[in-house]
Amino acid sequence: MINKTLVKKRFSDKAATYNDHAIVQRKMANHLLDYCENQLEKQPLSILEIGSGTGTMTKKLANVYPDASIDAVDLAPGMVETAKRYVTNDNVSFHCADFEEFTFENTYDLVISNAAFQWFNYLPETLVKTCRHVNEGGLFLFSTFGSSTFCELNQAVKWAVERLSYNKRVKVSQDFYSLQDLFAMLEAGIDKEHFSFHGTEERHVELFPDVKAFLKSVKEIGASNSNSHHYSQSISLFKEMIETYNDNFLTEDQRIPATYHSLYLYVTREL
């Protein structure tokens, strides 16, 4: 389970540094916006953004669709305050809330979410709930991180645990769904007579000068592991992980790769 209190605090604390380090997240947001531009047959008049963060995508939505009324929801107060200072468009309303518990009556022509659903504890139920608030002919688009995210880090930890014969629970990143997992959730929960969906995936490899720089970049956007379970934080294991990471994944130009596995789901409510 995700500790929402911890997520809220970490993202609030890192609102000022988020944009400097959220390189992959920006690419994912642009992917969703490009899809909207290419697929929407008419301008949406109502938009819901889930996980609005610092407001980067919110601002673009407000500028591209000036006639739309936009509800932007985010869990972290620090993120919402940062977004409010950045997005001054009259057509945007911000809501600081946990979307999984958020009660809303409106329906929308476009529902969009970038890199937020990996922080949900009840994703199948939330996907179904969200679909119910999509207007006929409307779109529900979201991106999240997939199961190969941080594969180098997870493999390095596994090897370090084996080398040290470590017998305590170890977890340095949270679990992520696969594209097939998301398909199964939608298949099980939506009315296929009224909804259709498809998805795509891609991998981004970011390069860092060393492992600590990579881990710092994750920390600076507030995205550190926020699982509720207690996990060992052994210094000796951490050192072994770094050494193992360097030994097995260092590139020819002496940099550290970190894979981000991006998933995109596109849900259409039929007319």
Automatic annotation (TrEMBL):
<dbReference type="InterPro" id="IPR029063">
    <property type="entry name" value="SAM-dependent_MTases_sf"/>
</dbReference>
<dbReference type="InterPro" id="IPR041698">
    <property type="entry name" value="Methyltransf_25"/>
</dbReference>
<feature type="domain" description="Methyltransferase">
    <location>
        <begin position="47"/>
        <end position="138"/>
    </location>
</feature>
<comment type="function">
    <text>Converts the free carboxyl group of a malonyl-thioester to its methyl ester by transfer of a methyl group from S-adenosyl-L-methionine (SAM). It allows to synthesize pimeloyl-ACP via the fatty acid synthetic pathway.</text>
</comment>
<protein>
    <recommendedName>
        <fullName>Malonyl-[acyl-carrier protein] O-methyltransferase</fullName>
        <ecNumber>2.1.1.197</ecNumber>
    </recommendedName>
</protein>
<comment type="pathway">
    <text>Cofactor biosynthesis; biotin biosynthesis.</text>
</comment>
<comment type="similarity">
    <text>Belongs to the methyltransferase superfamily.</text>
</comment>
<dbReference type="Pfam" id="PF13649">
    <property type="entry name" value="Methyltransf_25"/>
</dbReference>
<keyword id="KW-0808">Transferase</keyword>
<keyword id="KW-0093">Biotin biosynthesis</keyword>
<keyword id="KW-0489">Methyltransferase</keyword>
<dbReference type="GO" id="GO:0032259">
    <property type="term" value="P:methylation"/>
</dbReference>
<dbReference type="InterPro" id="IPR011814">
    <property type="entry name" value="BioC"/>
</dbReference>
<dbReference type="GO" id="GO:0102130">
    <property type="term" value="F:malonyl-CoA methyltransferase activity"/>
</dbReference>
<keyword id="KW-0949">S-adenosyl-L-methionine</keyword>
